[in-house]
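The methods section describes the discrete structure representation at length, but only in general terms. Since the whole study asks how a given chain folds, the encoding of that fold should be made plain. An entry of this sort, consisting of the sequence and the corresponding backbone structure tokens, reads as follows:

. . .
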Amino acid sequence: MTVAGAGGGRGAPLRAGQTDAPSETTAVENAARVRPPLACRPVRCILNHMVQYTHARLDASFAALSDATRRGVLERLGRADASITELAEKFDMTLTGMKKHVGVLEQAGLVTTEKVGRVRTCKLGPRRLEEERAWIERYRQLWDSRFEELDKVVEELKWKEKIDGRKKRE
């Protein structure tokens, strides 16, 4: 049996447990089911996007810096601009391999390239790794404070051990 207004609409067959009685849900309930409350949506999405963007930049930077060749390329470009060919020769790589390394650095914003004729010149990018430095500094401070607390515990244990040693000798 099919009913035009009930179930799936458009003459769809009724499923188990459905009746041809009119639905008791109201338009307000249907609208509430379709979209979350307006007050929640924009803020959560914007904040989530900003957090993901920050983490994506940090991830890209640290991924780019995780390779010794790419770190070497950054050091070399710190002294002077260089072509892909010059970098490939210095690191004893193929042009394709070096282009891939430079591409990773470029995606992270650490290097920019400019093609003039047949030569692609690389130079350090506009990013100065400030976000990465700040992230590392926060964790350095955290670990410094933890090590200071650990030093206090070790000193306290040494002091107790010294006192216990005196008591045993007496």
Notes: The two ends are 99 Å apart (CA to CA). Residues 1-9, 43-51 have pLDDT under 50 and may be disordered. Strands lie at 82-83, 111-116, 119-124.
